[in-house]
Every structure is written in structure tokens, then in C-alpha cells.
Write a structure and sequence with these properties.
alpha+beta, four-stranded antiparallel sheet, three-stranded antiparallel sheet, 6 helices, 9 strands, about 45% helix, rod-shaped, Band_7/SPFH_dom_sf, Band_7
Length: about 250
């Protein structure tokens, strides 16, 4: 082979190398709800979000990051609430990657990062509130909407570094731990009975006051002190007693 023929062949060899070896390393296909983090010899050069077929600098690394919504249902964990009572709690969290570059470069495994931070935030939130409260104090059971908003906010602050967006977070399971569940149930029942009794007594006293006021306004039905006491006693027995009241009739011969 003479030098002239070699000179003619070299350009074709170079073109072959460029077309069939070098250029294909720059081609990639991006599917819907996917992003490609492009890295060239250790340097981040950009992220592709649109679906389709693209070409970029040859010999680049193209890391696929899913942009689909994902949800996790955390395991039931045991933690002490603000009153020190052991409770079981779990949550449902819906999330997606909003910054693929952060998700790939800032944490080692962003899926595991979401799980670990979710567990940590749930424990922290549960320890800040009582399971239930008898007054207007906020609690995990009574203020579910506020608790869900706070859970989402706390998670978002933790996961911003990984480019994760939290779209929903809510408590999916909440209960007293098994070792105190029966005792807390009896406590709740006792509280319910006490509250009901208080409501009945307060209304009964109101009725008695109305009856006494009626007698005092009607001059033809004047009652002395003893008769008032007996009337009040009979009314309270009739209104508060759980059994059918037996009327008491006093016959005065005088």
C-alpha cells in the first residue's frame, strides 16, 4: 500500500471512529417523568428534564433520576408523647424529586435519606404533643390537620438539601402502646362519664332555679324554707337519678 492510498484511508478511519464510536456515547433517550444528570469527567454540566432523544458531549456520564410521585408508609414506631405516655405512630408521606442534581450529589442515597428523615421527624413531632388532652390544649388526636401541616413543614426543611419536595404528609396510625392501652381506655371512659354527669347536674340546677323563680314570682304559691329544700331535693332526684323517680307527697293536716 503506497502513501497516497494511506492518506486517503485515514480520513475515512477517523470519520468511522467519530460516527460509530465517539458520537454514540453522547446520545441518550429521556423518558417521561425522568431527568438526566449529565457529568463530564467529574464535572456537573447540566440536567435534562424534557422527554425525547438528545445528544450531548461524548464520553459523559448520564445519571437517571425519576421525577414520579412516590409514597411511603412508615413502620409503626413506639415513642413517648409529651406526657411521657408510650404511643404507636406511623405516617403516609408523598414525595418527589424536584432537583435531580441535589438528589444525586448532596446525599448518598436519596431514597434511604427520605426514610431516615421521615422516621426522625415523626419521633420528634410525637414527643412535642400529648396523645390526647382534656382541655383546649393541642394534641395528636384532636388536631390532626395542624399536626399533618407541621409534619410536612418539618420534613420539607430536612429534605430540601436533597432536592426532595413533600406534597403530602399525614398520620396514618395513632394509638396507645399495648401495655397501657387498657388503662388509658378506662381513663377515657371515666372522663366521659364525669363530663356527662357534670353536664346533667349543671342543666338540672338550671331547671331548679327556673322552678324556684317561678314560685317566687307567683305570690299565690309561696314556699317556706323547708318546702323549698324539699322541692329542690325532689327535683334533683327526678332529674339526675338514673332510675325512675318516686314522687314524694307531703300531707300537712294543719
Amino acid at each position: 500500500m503506497d502513501g497516497t492510498a494511506l492518506v486517503l484511508i485515514i480520513p475515512f478511519v477517523i470519520l468511522f471512529v467519530i460516527l460509530f464510536i465517539i458520537l454514540p456515547t453522547g446520545f441518550f433517550i429521556n423518558h417521561p417523568n425522568e431527568a438526566r444528570v449529565i457529568e463530564f469527567f467529574g464535572h456537573y454540566i447540566g440536567t435534562y428534564f424534557k422527554p425525547g432523544m438528545f445528544i450531548t458531549i461524548p464520553f459523559t456520564n448520564k445519571h437517571v433520576i425519576s421525577l414520579k410521585f412516590q409514597n411511603i408508609n412508615t413502620e409503626k414506631i413506639k415513642v413517648n408523647d409529651a406526657n411521657g405516655s408510650p404511643i404507636e405512630i406511623s405516617a403516609v408521606i408523598v414525595w418527589r424529586v424536584s432537583s435531580p442534581a441535589k438528589a444525586y450529589y448532596n446525599v448518598n442515597n436519596y431514597h434511604e435519606f427520605v426514610f431516615v428523615q421521615s422516621d426522625s421527624v415523626i419521633r420528634e413531632l410525637a414527643s412535642n404533643y400529648p396523645y390526647d388532652s382534656e382541655s383546649d390544649e393541642e394534641s395528636l388526636r384532636k388536631n390532626s390537620d395542624k399536626i399533618s401541616d407541621e409534619l410536612r413543614s418539618m420534613l420539607q426543611q430536612r429534605l430540601d438539601i436533597a432536592g426532595i419536595e413533600i406534597t403530602e404528609a399525614r398520620i396514618s396510625h395513632l394509638a396507645y402502646s399495648s401495655e397501657i392501652a387498657q388503662a388509658m381506655l378506662r381513663r377515657q371512659q371515666a372522663h366521659a362519664i364525669t363530663s356527662a354527669r357534670r353536664h346533667i347536674v349543671q342543666n338540672a340546677i338550671g331547671i331548679v332555679e327556673e322552678v324556684i323563680a317561678h314560685f317566687e314570682k307567683n305570690k299565690s304559691l309561696q314556699l317556706d324554707g323547708k318546702q323549698k329544700v324539699q322541692l329542690i331535693n325532689n327535683l334533683l332526684v327526678a332529674l339526675i337519678s338514673e332510675q325512675d323517680a318516686q314522687p314524694t307527697i307531703s300531707l300537712d293536716n294543719n
